């Protein structure tokens, strides 16, 4: 199966078109949302806004990692210099990532998806899993255990498979610390340096949580794990506005489309999904697309709600 089986050459060229304007907007929108979350807590400081901010910031940090992912594919901007600068400093470094290291390992995932050589396989090979096991994983995430392990691995350069692949950690740690120092400085100059603690708390708790759910949604208990067709080894999840805010920022939920044509910028993925749907692309793989993340959870953790899982 190839993209050309469902799309004309002209359509493929249109969908793979990069845009410096759209890349700039995606970065601006991400950081404006982060500013809005900080402002919410600064103006209405109470336990509820603090907890809400930590949850939302985890989703925003995932959003920055998606921009890192995009720049690693060289599709965030048309101008490659912008991928290498803005993609790094405003996408990757604030979450202690590196576009170059990520891109190199991620391309191996694309090349080997559907095989037992996929470097991401440890993230999802054991799914479906029991509800008790899944709850333990989520508890480790939200309690900070996964995040602390992540930071420790960053310092050692070992990497961690929830938030990055083995070998990616520490490749740009100095730049990441500079980017975080810049964020702290901006908050300090604004008279609210303490808000940086929310960023750290989110990095250690809600970011690992949403990163895990993202990974599970993309490849956990898919229709045919060891199959080269992305409809078999990957999943797309149709998301509502709240899920897009927290669990799948920047169109990351359209994962089959991304594996089909990795050169398509993320802002084009929704339109590509609609075109493929209209042409029967998913007809032979009805379970390749999930309606919402709760539907995904029921698929990867069948006993979390037995009656609902049976109906899924």
Keywords:
two-stranded parallel sheet; mainly alpha; 312 residues; globular; disordered C terminus
Describe the structure.
By secondary structure, the protein is mainly α. The chain has one domain. The protein has helices at residues 9-15, 20-43, 47-72, 80-92, 99-112, 131-142, 145-156, 173-189, 196-204, 206-219, 230-233, 241-246, 255-260, 269-278, 293-300, 306-311, and strands spanning 236-238, 289-291. Strands 1-2 form a two-stranded parallel sheet. The protein is globular. It starts with 8 loop residues before the first helix and ends with a helix. The model is unreliable at 308-312 (pLDDT under 50).
Quick overview:
The chain has helices at 9-15, 20-43, 47-72, 80-92, 99-112, 131-142, 145-156, 173-189, 196-204, 206-219, 230-233, 241-246, 255-260, 269-278, 293-300, 306-311, and strands spanning 236-238, 289-291. With 312 residues, it is mainly alpha-helical. The protein has one domain (3-311).
Number of strands: 2
Structural class: mainly alpha
Total number of distinct structural domains: 1
Can you list the strand order of the major beta sheet?
A: 1-2
Order of helices and strands: HHHHHHHHHHHEHHHEHH
> Which blocks of ≥5 consecutive residues have pLDDT under 50?
308-312
From the N-terminal CA to the C-terminal CA, the straight-line distance is: 27 Å
What's the story with the biggest beta sheet? Answer: 2 strands, parallel
The Cα radius of gyration reads 19 Å
Number of helices: 16
Instruction: State the helical fraction.
Output: 55-70%
Give the overall pLDDT as a whole number. Answer: 91
